[in-house]
Design brief:
It is found in: Cell membrane; Membrane. This protein has helices at residues 3-49, 54-59, 62-93, 103-115, 118-129, 133-157, 161-169, 174-204, 217-226, 229-257. The longest helix is centred in the N-terminal third of the chain and has 47 residues, at 3-49. It has a single domain (3-257), classed as MetI-like fold (Orthogonal Bundle), CATH 1.10.3720.10. By secondary structure, the chain is an all-alpha fold. The chain is elongated and about 70 Å long.
Length: 262
């Protein structure tokens, strides 16, 4: 068999593997979305047929659940956007020239936010900055910096240097090479870090109910304070379903942002 035929067979085999992976990924996305919808539907059915007290019925009304879910989503996404705005430029900077030597210590410092218990960061923010949404979002953002920053550095460092040299040899500027070669190739790794941070912050946002930041954590707080197991369980289940939904949304964005063939 000629070398051209061997190369053609390898290309076809690679395309078949990529197509199989794509189909598997689409199937997972559909299944994950279906689970989220079923869980939220089951919660609505439960609160509509269960024998609830007046306080429970008011806390678990469809309108209140929708409002708290939206509030929880806004808290998580706002913190994630803050993390991306800080971590992506910083991660790019730490892969340029002489700044590389600072990458390890800066990532180590960023790791302190995640190494510390989340409740500790939130309590410190509440003590020194007050309660409410803004201090809580700041604490969430500090907690979520590490996965994004580390993945930006890892993704850019993982780009084949020969591709960068080839781009520069074709006359691309350093910025053009970064935006048109390095960032697209590093996108899958970077998006994985963003998705990880989003899911972490969505779960941690449950603590917002204890510091006046709102979200579904308010149901957990109410359930604990008043000894209402139904409110506590519904709140915790809704948080888990919302985290799964956010993970689904992040996977969709990740697939859309990833260049074909990667």
């Amino acid at each position: 068999m000629s070398s051209a035929a061997v190369v053609a067979d390898e290309v076809l085999e690679k395309e078949a593997v990529l197509e199989a992976d794509a189909q598997s990924g689409r199937g997972r996305l559909v299944g994950q979305l279906a689970v989220c919808v079923l869980v939220f539907a089951a919660l609505l059915v439960y609160v509509s047929v269960a024998d609830l007290s007046q306080v429970e019925a008011r806390s678990l009304s469809a309108g209140n659940l929708a409002s708290l879910s939206w509030e929880h989503l806004v808290l998580s996404v706002t913190a994630a956007l803050a993390v991306v705005v800080v971590s992506v430029p910083l991660g790019v900077l730490l892969t340029r020239g002489g700044m590389r030597r600072f990458a390890t210590p800066i990532i180590a410092v960023a790791g302190f936010g995640q190494a510390a218990p989340a409740i500790g960061l939130i309590v410190l923010a509440a003590l020194y900055l007050g309660t409410g949404k803004a201090p809580f979002i700041l604490a969430l953002a500090i907690y979520g910096v590490l996965p994004v920053l580390a993945n930006v550095v890892t993704g850019l460092d993982g780009v084949d240097p020969r591709l960068v040299e080839a781009a520069r040899g074709m006359g691309m500027s350093a910025v053009g090479t970064l935006l048109r070669v390095e960032m697209p190739l590093a996108t899958p790794v970077i998006m994985t870090g963003i998705r990880t941070a989003l899911v972490l912050m969505t779960g941690t946002a449950a603590l917002g109910g204890f510091v006046g930041a709102g979200g579904l954590g308010a149901l957990v707080n109410t359930g604990i304070k008043l000894g209402l197991d139904s409110v506590l369980v519904v709140g915790a289940t809704a948080i888990a379903a919302l985290a799964l939904f956010i993970d689904w949304g992040a996977r969709v964005i990740e697939q859309a942002a990833t260049p074909k063939g990667l």
